Amino acid sequence: MSESIREAIHRKLSGIDRLLADETAAGSVSVKVEVAKTTAHHRKGGGVFRAEVMLALPGGIIRVEEEGEDLYEILDAVKDMLAERVKQHKELRREREI
Q1: What are the Cα distances from residue 75, in Å, to 24, 67, 92?
Q2: Other C-beta atoms within 10 Å of 4: how many?
Q3: What is the pTM of this model?
Q4: C-beta separation of 33 from 13 below 8 A
Q5: Which residues, listed in sequence order, are joined to residue 49 by a DSSP beta bridge?
Q6: Alpha-carbon torsion, ordered 48, 57, 14, 31, to 10 deg
Q7: For the segment 46-83, what is each residue's pLDDT rounded down to a tens digit?
Q8: Looking at residue 25, what DSSP letter applies?
Q9: Is residue 9 within 8 Å of residue 35, measured between CB atoms?
Q10: How far is CA 54 from CA 3, 42, 98, in A?
């Protein structure tokens, strides 16, 4: 993986940190990011890319993935999906505590 892709992943996903403040205080949080070029049959676009993020939180695992021709658009979509799923997870935890 190139350094520019590694930096883009870090930059795109770093905003999720603030959503996880409560979760990290409650226990261990781990993140696994996988980015791959899945096929070369789209010669014009340089291939089809896939991004997957698995986030292990206290009380559950969140997994999101996306595929497309533009890696940076895929990273944006994954970030948005992950943020939404983290918010849902936090809301469910709050409801269970009540």
Answers
A1: 23, 9, 26
A2: 9
A3: 0.77
A4: yes
A5: 37, 68
A6: -50
A7: 568 899 999 888 778 899 999 998 989 999 999 999 99
A8: H
A9: yes
A10: 21, 27, 27
